[in-house]
Design brief:
The protein is an all-alpha fold. The chain has a single domain, classed as Hydantoin permease. About 60% of the residues lie in helices and about 0% in strands. It is built from 22 helices and 4 strands. A hairpin with a 3-residue loop joins strand 1 and strand 2. Helix 17 packs across helix 18. The chain is globular, with a radius of gyration of 23 Å. The termini are close together. It is a multi-pass membrane protein. Keywords: Membrane, Transmembrane, Transmembrane helix, Transport. Belongs to the purine-cytosine permease (2.A.39) family. InterPro entries: Pur-cyt_permease, Pur-cyt_permease_Fcy2/21/22. One of its GO terms (cellular component) is plasma membrane.
Length: about 525
């Protein structure tokens, strides 16, 4: 896709000016973000207290510190590699990733991405609010004697959720401002935490898989190691549906390697909160093991129990900053996307609706359904379903040589019909089949001990192979379907397809509101 001629830059907008853009293509003059802005948003959204909670899972699974470090490195690096190519769709198409998926799933099939982003946002927004709210209440209890009853937790959750919703309503620029502050301040607080626990930290923490462990315990090492790595991996992969929400403000002429590199490095940088969670969890396991009981783990309570008194206030600040940062990155994109799924809703109204639904889930899950302990399973299953969607997107980008028709991508949002990505009545069954078959396979083989085991989850000796298997199935099946059932030649643009065959099929004209008159095709951008 050839870069667009440069346009005069639009005057900078006020931080408090509510963003009016939905998922329509961002005008060139307003695409003033940089890859470093993408880095700050993606890193800021994960440089939070909720990531520390995920970082504690290797210890909760019984691993030693060094085994947990290996699982964490594996999960972060693998997740970053899976995630980073998803950053290119925003600059190319000027819209979010769910809309870009129209090219591979069809203009109606793109609702799959919208649905997945909604579930992901609810899951990680909930993790953020629960973990940050618990830390804030616990810290305030230790500092000021605040009662730790349900009312205190309800007020803390409502405070976080309300602040997050307000930032999301204002939009991209205000969210970028919040994350600029969050990246620096949270990083400084994590480094301060390293000093707080330096005297208690012992890297020789052995875990349960020692030489003296019985045979049954030793047999659970690989299931525990892989399970911990997959939970860590779920954090970077969770950004796959959202990267386009932010990268769409980056000019199309920006080199792709810089955009991909920014997304990759943003996740490598999350080793800071992950290692904080891992290290402090090992301290908790040594000094207050009752808080890392797999049957009822309480990382936040354990952290406060072993923290020096002067670190309680920094814990509260980490909770507040982290709750804002993670929540905004999760909620903003989903509200943005649902404004196109439901045309009667503006971006602001859709954001408010999704936010209120998410807040209702948070309160019901915490006080009514007791879902807090099973949210890791919820996140694992969602990521298992989202990853094959990402594979279809990335392989589609490769086979198309990065060429797209941004006008045809907007057919669904404008309530039109036809265009390059109409396929079969708006559905591209090749991409959809590869996605659902891979997602179903992954769920069937998922194995989260004590919470969820798929019907085929025990076939690998207790090792959770659901996610890796879903990635392989999606890749193999999608490429096979592209070869056996060629797509229309028009979707590949001026160059030939890679790893796929094409068919000379007429493209139905775009009809409906705002369409060009019959016989006058809309000129593709780029």
């Amino acid at each position: 896709m050839s870069p667009q001629p440069s346009s005069p830059a639009a005057p900078p907008r006020s931080l408090t000016e509510v963003e009016t853009h939905g998922v329509d293509r961002i005008p060139d003059a307003e695409r003033t973000a940089t890859p470093f802005d993408l880095f700050r948003l993606a890193f800021g959204g994960a440089n939070t207290f909720s990531t520390c909670v995920l970082g504690a899972f290797p210890i909760l699974f019984g691993l030693s510190f060094w085994q947990g470090l290996a699982a964490t490195l594996l999960g972060v690096v693998a997740g970053a590699l899976i995630l980073c190519p998803m950053a290119v769709f925003g600059p190319v198409n000027g819209t979010n990733n769910a809309v870009s998926s129209s090219a591979h799933l069809g203009v109606h099939g793109r609702v799959v991405g919208s649905f997945l982003s909604l579930l992901t946002a609810v899951a990680f927004f909930s993790i953020s609010v629960w973990s940050s709210g618990d830390a804030l209440v616990g810290g305030a209890h230790r500092l000021f004697g605040l009662d730790r009853g349900n009312l205190s937790y309800a007020v803390a959750y409502a405070l976080f959720a309300g602040l997050v919703l307000a930032v999301c309503v204002y939009g991209f620029r205000f969210m970028l401002f919040v994350n600029k502050i969050a990246v620096t301040s949270a990083s400084a607080l994590f480094l301060l935490g390293a000093l707080a626990f330096a005297g208690d930290f012992d890297p020789s923490y052995p875990g349960v898989f020692t030489g003296s462990a019985d045979a049954v315990t030793r047999s659970q090492f690989w299931p525990s190691f892989i399970g911990a790595a997959l939970i860590v991996l779920s954090n970077p992969v969770s950004f796959g549906a959202f990267l386009g929400d932010w990268s769409r403000y980056i000019p199309a002429s920006t080199p792709r390697r810089r955009v991909v590199g920014a997304a990759f490095l943003s996740q490598i940088a999350t080793l800071l909160p992950f290692l904080f969670g891992l290290s402090t969890a090992s301290v908790i396991a040594a000094k207050a093991p009752e808080y890392v009981d797999p049957a009822a783990p309480d990382f936040v309570g354990g952290l406060l129990a072993v923290s020096p008194g002067w670190f309680f206030l920094p814990v509260c600040l980490l909770a507040l900053i982290g709750g804002l940062s993670t929540g905004t990155t999760a909620l903003y994109g989903t509200g943005l996307d649902f404004s196109s799924v439901f045309p009667r809703l503006s971006r602001v109204r859709a954001t408010l609706l999704v936010g209120l639904v998410s807040i209702a889930f948070i309160f019901a899950g915490r006080f009514g359904l007791n879902l807090v302990q099973s949210i890791s399973t919820f996140a694992t299953v969602i990521i298992t379903c989202t990853s094959p969607w990402m594979v279809v997107m990335m392989l589609g980008y490769y086979t198309r040589r990065g060429w797209y028709d941004p006008e045809a991508l907007q057919v669904f949002n404008r309530r039109q019909r036809g265009g390059r990505y109409w396929f079969a009545h708006g559905w591209n069954w090749r991409g959809l089949t590869a996605w659902w078959a891979a997602a179903l396979t992954g769920v069937l083989f998922t194995h989260v001990p004590g919470q969820f085991v798929g019907p085929l989850g025990g076939l690998a000796g207790g090792v959770d192979i659901g996610l890796p298997l879903s990635l392989v199935v999606a890749a193999v099946l999608f490429l096979a379907l592209l070869w056996l059932f060629p797509e229309p030649r028009a979707v590949y643009g001026p160059e030939d397809a890679r790893l796929a065959r094409t068919a000379q099929v007429p493209v139905p004209p775009i009809t409906g509101p705002g369409a060009e008159p019959a016989g006058v095709p809309a000129a593709p951008v780029g």
